[in-house]
Amino acid sequence: MKREELADLLVAAWGQAGWSDLLALVAEQLTPELVQSLKMRVDALKLQHARQALAIAHVAEAVADTINSPVALATAALALGNAQHARGQYQAALAHFCHAERLFSQQHDLDGLARALINQIGPLQELGAFVDALDVATRAEAICTELGAAATLYRGVLEQNRSALYIHTHDYAAALISAEHGQSYLRDVGADDRAAHLDLNIAIALEGLNQLDAAAARINQGQAALAAAGHREELSRFAMSLGALAARRGRYAEALHWLDRAELGFAEAHIEHEVAFIQLIRAQVYQNLNLHTDALCLAHTAVKPLQQAKMRAQVALALLVQAHSLRTTATPDRASRADALLKRARRMLATEGAIASGRLLEIDVARLELGVAHGRIPLAQRHISRLRNHPLLSTYPALAARVALLQLRIELQCVQPNVAAIDARLRSIHAEALREALYEVEIEVHDLFSQTALLRHAQEQALDHCLTALAIIERIRVQIMLDEPAIGFVERYQAIYERAIALAQTQSNPQFTLALLSFAATAPLPNSSRATRSSPELTALREQWHHQQAGPLTELAAPQSSTQSKRLAELEATIADHWRRMQLQAYGSATADEQQSSPLLNPHTADAWVAQLQARLDPDTALLHYYTVDGLAYSILLTAHQPATSIALGSAALIERACQAWRMHIDLRVKGLHCTLGLNHAHMIGKRLYDSLIAPLAHGLEGSTRLMVTLPATWHDLPFAALWDGKQYLVERFTLAFLTAPVAFGSTIAHHKQGGTALTIGYSDGGRLPAALHEAQHMANIFAAHWPTTLLLEADATEAQFSAATAQSQIIHLATHAIFRPENPLFSWLQLADARITVANLYQLALAHQPLVLLNACETGRGAPRGGGLLGMARGLLVAGASGLVVSLWRIADECAAMLMAGVATELCASADRLDAAAALATAQRRIIVHEPHPFAWAGWIAIVG
């Protein structure tokens, strides 16, 4: 039987009954050459069909064991190592390559020895043993030199592996030289396909050297060559590497784009462990974007397939990601769970010896951060002393910077820190951060510089450092492109925003303070939203989500059972992940263009911005921006005729307590305890708030009839309309319009009555909300006298109808049930006939006509503070394109809600020219006050105009 025929026979019989009998039957035909033939099959298949390649490698091992030839055993060991390396089983692969090295060395086989050594470099690199890998590369190079021209192919592979090592150790000049040499060697022997793989290494090295155009050209060149050769899995690995690189450099949208492409490729090839590894990298991206619940769930999901593939280093990394996500919450339970995960990861790697030292270092740094976060400073200081002398720390610039910055943060907590010494070390870290493009290290360095400047009483320098940090944050934020991850990223740095505002306040420059407040109040909304279609996978996940919550609706925001809650959290993390990927596909692969620093961050341009803002104010309008600094409340007042003025309001804690008293008052009313606290109690709270928030501004508000208000996120449910001066409510004197930030004023179109269409939707939720149908019908009748109107009731109020009709409407009204989910605001929802429309779904809309949206559903104006703003239904609709909203802050009786909505609609129709939601709402509220003076019935409605 010919050798290839015998190989076919053995491969086909592997794993079947009678395998041992067949092997014994053909024993005399088994040769080292047959093992070599099987190894060649492994090498041909390992990148595209890794599982099949591993099976063939086991056949080669069985054949080699049968003939017991050292050469055959060494060749089989190489085959097994190659197959296991392709499957991510780096520890097992390394063991087989080392075994092959010993066998070839015993036979004095330089050719085989070179191959065994070169193959060790890859798994050593993946296990973080960079020093050992470079040492092996040096040994391999010496043998290749001895072999001469016969080792040209080996030299090419060696330089390919060495360039990857230099990239990991951030020596981009050396990486470029190695990659170019490797590509030349491979082309000399006709290995053009393999040479194309090196385009990725060359591109990464060029990017590290800031040669961005050349790097982009190399990426395109390498992708084209691999695609032409049909290397789908290699294209996926190409994309995975680009995603990981983009994430390290703070280009998160680009990272998610590449990771999505890589995952799709591996999923098509059914390579589960690679899919899991990409999910793990994506979890790290989400971790950096402050999306810790999603990061935790993704990392947890990745563990099982990584364990099945025996990828111990990657399992340890998954545990590390979970621990970091748990660390962000200050609860003792989660802190202890995080510590347990880190200890488990360390035990897992400790058995691997020196080759796992890189991963162990990363875990030790994470344990150090956990200790600092939870106040275990003496223990943290001992860890720092040990880590600073770690021989590998210098090969991990990002880890080294984290350790150094943690030490400086601890030193700043001393009674008399050595500020000059701290500044000197910060300058050194900053230089390294610039050299390695560690943008987030730059942010932290400037944060600490601002703190040392304050210790030197150099307020201006402190502010300059804060502004520099904010400019870097903004540069990263604009490239994220998606709103929800962007505000999550901004949330990480709220302390810097707050310090900048406090420092601006000390300069007595209210124009610049207002500009900074507007910048910090919320991450700016995207210019427009793009409608995104759902994928079959996302549709199936949403159906599963609906099924998991099937049954009678409850007033609880989440399931009571901890098991149900955990299952729901994992499902929602998966849905959110798919949703973000779909959104990024709609936006395309390109990151946002590099933008100049915001004029709001420059004191010189801030004056011009405030002047433009002032010019847009009508003579009867006053803009109020409330904020807190160091426990005191302030408001900046701006009118068309008066410059910006900062006015002190007193203790912020007093206002917070009044807000809390109001929340308790409303909660009792919602529960039907009307007799416990009546109108007098509401007036008492309203008067307390009026005296704090409005009375100090009385002189500046003379002549104003309209207030444009921005509140701190934690005050968003403050009953502004119900503020009581002793004789009347605030809404009886002023029209109240709310802004997410002053920068949003005038950013949306002013609708005129002519043209456009109206949409009204009513859903009774199985008869539980019968008033919703009557309200929707009544609203449709009112609108129909002025606009072509679409009415969707009950079974017609489907998600598809909702999406199609909202895209064409100028006015949208919904009367249905809703739930606000404070623990996961992205999954707060509105009920339709066939689906619950979440905030994530609202983000996917494209409201092309920038409609005014009226929502009669519970708590649609509430949100979770995030990134200086609020994440909730209102923000989702504003991002989708809504020009204005009328939403509620608490649950209101159906009759009052219907009466108010009808009043708003009537006023909109009666207006002479443009649609003014704030004016219509104020008039409707004043009419209700005549019949129902208690603010519970009407003050929960607010008009958001930008």
Automatic annotation (TrEMBL):
InterPro entries: CHAT_dom, TPR-like_helical_dom_sf. Coiled coil: none annotated. Residues 686-943 form the CHAT domain. This is CHAT domain-containing protein.
